[in-house]
Amino acid sequence: MAGAIIENMSTKKLCIVGGILLVFQVIAFLVGGLIAPSPTTAVPYTSVKCIDVRKNHHKTKWLMPWGPNHCEKLKDFDEAVSRQIEANDIVFAVHVPLPSKEMSPWFQFMLFIMQLDIAFKMDNDLKENAEITLDVSLAYRDDMSDDWEEIAHAIEIRKLKCTFGSPKTLESEGRHYDCDFLPFMEIGSVAHKYYLINIRLPVNERKGINVGIGEIKDIRLVGIHQNGGFTKVWFAMKTFLTPSILIIMVWYWRRITLMTRAPVLLEKVIFALGISMTFINIPVEWFSIGFDWTWMLLFGDIRQGIFYAMLLSFWIIFCGEHMMDQSERNRLSGYWKQVGPIAVGSFCLFIFDMCERGVQLKNPFYSIWTTEVGTELAMAFIIVAGICLCLYFLFLCFMVFQVFRNISGKQSSLPAMSKARRLHYEGLIFRFKFLMLITLACAAMTVIFFIVSQVTEGHWKWGDITIQVNSAFFTGIYGMWNLYVFALMFLYAPSHKNYGEDQSNGDLGVSSGEELQLTTTITHADGPTEVYKLARKEAQE
User: Is 60 exceeded by the pLDDT of residue 400?
Assistant: First the structure.
């Protein structure tokens, strides 16, 4: 009777905890869907063609497209030809943001892509595999009366990928090519109010620079930055979740240290998962509002990489520690075959990120995809990481299958036990399956919401209510994994209750104290749990 009462209470508590977590999960989605605006905003910019005939002009002058000190403008290139203005003296100028607006540190980052308007002309056709050379400069200022301060200057090469939908005849002259967008620039902070981009297309026929690129009519940029309203909601979530995970971590580790035994592997891995989650949660982004920290994007990638690597490792070890016949339990070295692909894949993605965003810390115009060598290197890292991920999931699926097969085999021994002890083991098995289903549900929700956010228009409108789907995806999934880690530490904190070997009238001898632990793999102060003893005995037989 005592065992049945305890198990019923334990299951009831599990349901209560699950219900509370579900409520917080719904709140996380609603915060993003109803309170936060769209995560990002895309702003189109059309460059202004300026004239600068002075030698070494870049060192002495920045050309403004509008304002009191705007440059001398060209209407089109026909005017340049009529006025005998050379291509090297034409500068494409873009001011960020648009007139009467200001940029803000709350925007967090700026990403620019470029689109070229190239017209077909019989005597100036776009050759196959053409490359365009860009002489680009970026400057900033915080007051309209200040001088421009240079941030970066680079000479970059981009490959043109264009198609022409009509026959290349005289009748088709003037029609535009359909060209792919080109990566242009990315900076990891928006610390200043105004930015100025000057783009030159230097021509050198002897060296073949910018020859055979067609007749360029205009250069258009699309600037993408994070919305300030979404940033504030995101920072608020991080600020709220950081102490929540920290508190449960301190409580969890205190429960472990109160035991007379050393922590077991699964406990250590859960604690490490909590540390990695806390590493993501700590809202260091608040400092980016006051400091020009361009490395925040790279730092954010590293934090996410550590968490996901730790999460994948936890799933492997979680399954392995529940394979009751496994002799290599409670040792990290026993999982090197499964954890190895995670380490290799994570390292490849880290190197790829350093080759892209690491270089952009010095040169925001750099892109690893703009050269043959860079593209092949990037693809190699991504392919290796993809292979490692496939191997990992094969290992994981195999281990999950083995765990459920072992559990099914052990259930045949349950009828021979007393009622109380049988109920205890059935509860442990039920809760293990419950956590496995929750894990699958979290992974499935992540994939589903990602797909939905990609294929929808970004928001749903129900009457007067507008739901921002993309914002709900970010806040909901972020909150979901925090709740997942919170639940793991809460449910897998070791208990100080022990099941005695002796039973009377089918009752279970239980010392007074705390609630039952969830895991079947945690060893008690006096030795392994009864499930582990049973499993080892069955294996030996």
Answer: yes
